[in-house]
Amino acid sequence: MTLDDAADFLKVSSTTIYQLVRAGEVPARKVGREWRFLKSQLVAYLKQGGDSMTYSSVMTDEQGGEYKIENGQEYVALWLPFSREEKADHIRKAVEQGTTVSALVATYLKETL
Hints:
Helix 1 (3-10) packs across helix 2 (14-22) and helix 4 (84-97) packs across helix 5. A hairpin with a 2-residue loop joins strand 1 (29-31) and strand 2. This protein folds into 2 domains: 3-47, no CATH class; 64-112, no CATH class. By secondary structure, the chain is of the alpha+beta class. 46% of the residues lie in helices and 15% in strands. The protein has 5 helices and 5 strands. The chain has a 3-stranded antiparallel sheet, with no helix packed on it. A two-stranded antiparallel ribbon has the order 1-2. The longest helix is centred in the last third of the chain and has 14 residues, at 84-97. It is elongated and about 50 Å long. It holds the Pfam family HTH_17. Residues 1-49 form the Helix-turn-helix domain. This is Helix-turn-helix domain-containing protein.
């Protein structure tokens, strides 16, 4: 479901559902620039009476990038398993080497996973 679909399903405004997602109250996944929802998870949320579920909330770093902390591990968007400090280091290296951050991240993931 899209954000608008989820808002219609819950009978709230798009702004309200977006705020619930950002607060970690309603489970969702960001696909590209769009939020996606599973109807089954929205039903589970309603069955709990709107109590907070155990989903991590998404925060914004100094550069405007998104990150979350889950089980003590920091993840940057696309939910890569490295911290904001490591992200900043990759950006710095990309600039120094005249390459893309994507290329450096791909190398990092190949070496560590």
